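Run log // design_07
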């Protein structure tokens, strides 16, 4: 489980870094809207900075969002994977989520109740 968490965070960080490098080197345009900076990449994807937020909108409609140490991978089906330090939260399409904190796994159900293993 910890290996999967580490791999997910590592891949997310690498994708975000690669998007930033690509944006800087391909002559993409930069637009400023107040505190928002949107870098429209050559392939149609975009990089949006809102304060400390960086959102990499991928070509397939998925996105990678970094907020400080938070990495959120928004999957194409609407689900997302969020890593906050050692916390990994898998937000499922139906609104439920799975949270792993160390050895604790908590399944937050749609009705607000939760199941802890």
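design_07 sequence
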């Amino acid at each position: 489980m910890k290996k999967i968490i580490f791999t997910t965070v590592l891949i997310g960080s690498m994708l975000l870094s690669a998007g930033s490098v690509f944006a800087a080197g391909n002559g993409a345009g930069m637009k400023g809207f107040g505190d928002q900076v949107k870098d429209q990449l050559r392939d149609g994807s975009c990089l949006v900075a809102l304060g400390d937020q960086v959102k990499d909108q991928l070509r397939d409609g998925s996105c990678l969002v970094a907020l400080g140490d938070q990495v959120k991978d928004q999957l194409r089906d609407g689900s997302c994977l969020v890593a906050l330090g050692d916390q990994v939260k898998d937000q499922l399409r139906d609104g439920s989520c799975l949270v792993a904190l160390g050895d604790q796994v908590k399944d937050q159900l749609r009705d607000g109740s939760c199941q802890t293993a």
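The domain at 2-116 is CATH 2.60.450.20 (lipopolysaccharide transport protein A fold).
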